[in-house]
């Protein structure tokens, strides 16, 4: 059963100015009117109350279908926090320590090799001096990468092996992980931060540790208890699934792309904990409320408050930000002032980040320009949904932050 999502508080009740919140509508409606976005949906809540739900435009422009509150969206990398929560639930059961080498459960990673020099065709590698540990997967510091980065010879090796935007046809998660384990690492485990397939490997780790396929673990242990009935690796309602768009290189206008838009319509061979889920605003709102509730929602507790606090802390060595520790290439967040926790970006320095948001805010986004954040200091959660690949096309997330925080008046 789909959960209902509606405004349940007067904005003033929770410290917002309604006229100022309306600026969200004005701003994002322009993107639709100019043809830059097909349509969008945004949700802002504070102190557990929904103060704003805004939407405009179409979920399917060609069919003339408007964005509805229960539209299904491919959330891509917003799957990563779900996988991270799954892993930390097993951690709380004493299944492993964060410092454990993953090779204990994934023996294919027993002897990783690290790229030193050369090219994609003739790489020179050396043995890893440190095993890949569980926390390396959670923090994207394992030395793994993505084929779509186009920044390092190892990225090209991933593409050669069928890993650019997807996975080789027919290969399941176990097979993909076996193949990634055979490819060189970009750097020694723990040495740097690089956005990567680490969370997909973490999903396989969850499968092995729990003895359950990832979709089953998610459904039984997370989605059912939290009332997220419309979230999964395949949409529960194909008629409500939004179409996917990309910017036209010449005009910047959103153009339908059915090749990428096939995801979410059928159960994938590879259950990607890094990017495979489809969800609704109502479902993901419940997930953010569970996080804001420090591991509990409506009397259901999946994690302890201490575990959520650890996940939402900056784990980069020395407390540095991504600008100092990360590779300067695509991620779902800016680098300045942001660290990284166990599955989320973590805002360390709002001044350096040039944002109105609060220190301690944790967040992530997805490739089709979806995003969320949780701000424990102000008790705010915010969500944004659209379907435009890639998420670097427009600075939607930065603007949403500005527009939400300028509306706080208490």
TrEMBL record:
<dbReference type="InterPro" id="IPR050789">
    <property type="entry name" value="Diverse_Enzym_Activities"/>
</dbReference>
<feature type="domain" description="Beta-lactamase-related">
    <location>
        <begin position="24"/>
        <end position="403"/>
    </location>
</feature>
<dbReference type="Pfam" id="PF00144">
    <property type="entry name" value="Beta-lactamase"/>
</dbReference>
<protein>
    <submittedName>
        <fullName>CubicO group peptidase (Beta-lactamase class C family)</fullName>
    </submittedName>
</protein>
<dbReference type="InterPro" id="IPR012338">
    <property type="entry name" value="Beta-lactam/transpept-like"/>
</dbReference>
<dbReference type="InterPro" id="IPR001466">
    <property type="entry name" value="Beta-lactam-related"/>
</dbReference>
């Amino acid at each position: 059963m789909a959960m209902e999502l509606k405004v349940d508080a007067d904005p003033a009740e929770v410290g917002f100015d309604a006229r100022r919140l309306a600026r969200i509508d004005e701003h994002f409606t322009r993107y639709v009117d100019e043809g830059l976005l097909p349509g969008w949906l945004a949700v802002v809540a504070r102190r557990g109350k929904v103060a704003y739900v805004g939407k405009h435009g179409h979920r399917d422009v060609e069919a003339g279908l408007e964005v509805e509150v229960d539209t299904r969206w491919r959330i891509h990398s917003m799957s990563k926090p779900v996988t991270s929560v799954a892993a930390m639930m097993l951690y709380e059961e004493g299944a492993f320590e964060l410092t454990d080498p993953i090779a204990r459960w994934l023996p294919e990673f027993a002897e990783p090799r690290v790229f030193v020099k050369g090219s994609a065709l003739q790489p020179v590698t050396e043995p890893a001096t440190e095993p890949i540990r569980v926390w390396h997967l959670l923090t994207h510091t394992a030395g793994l990468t993505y084929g779509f980065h186009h920044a390092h010879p190892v990225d090209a090796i991933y593409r050669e092996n069928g890993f650019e935007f997807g996975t080789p046809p027919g290969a399941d998660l176990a097979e993909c992980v076996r193949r990634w384990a055979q490819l060189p690492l970009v750097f020694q485990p723990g040495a740097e931060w690089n956005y990567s397939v680490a969370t997909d490997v973490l999903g396989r780790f969850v499968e092995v540790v729990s003895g359950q396929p990832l979709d089953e673990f998610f459904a039984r242990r997370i989605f059912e208890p939290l009332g997220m009935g419309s979230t999964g690796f395949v949409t529960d309602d194909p008629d409500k699934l939004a179409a996917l768009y990309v910017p036209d290189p010449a005009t910047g206008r959103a153009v339908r792309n059915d090749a990428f838009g096939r995801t979410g319509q059928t159960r994938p061979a590879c259950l990607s904990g890094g990017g495979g889920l489809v969800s609704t605003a109502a479902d993901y709102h419940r997930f953010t409320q569970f996080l804001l509730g420090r591991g509990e929602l409506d009397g259901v507790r999946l994690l302890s408050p201490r575990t959520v606090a650890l996940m939402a802390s900056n784990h980069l060595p020395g407390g540095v930000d991504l600008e100092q520790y990360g590779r300067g290439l695509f991620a779902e967040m800016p680098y300045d002032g942001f660290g990284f926790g166990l599955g989320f970006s973590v805002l360390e320095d709002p001044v350096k980040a040039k944002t109105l948001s609060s220190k301690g805010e944790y967040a992530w986004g997805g490739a089709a320009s979806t995003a969320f954040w949780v701000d424990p200091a102000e008790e705010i959660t915010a969500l944004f949904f659209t379907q435009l690949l890639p998420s670097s096309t427009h600075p939607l997330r930065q603007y949403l932050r500005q527009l939400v925080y300028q509306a706080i008046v208490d």
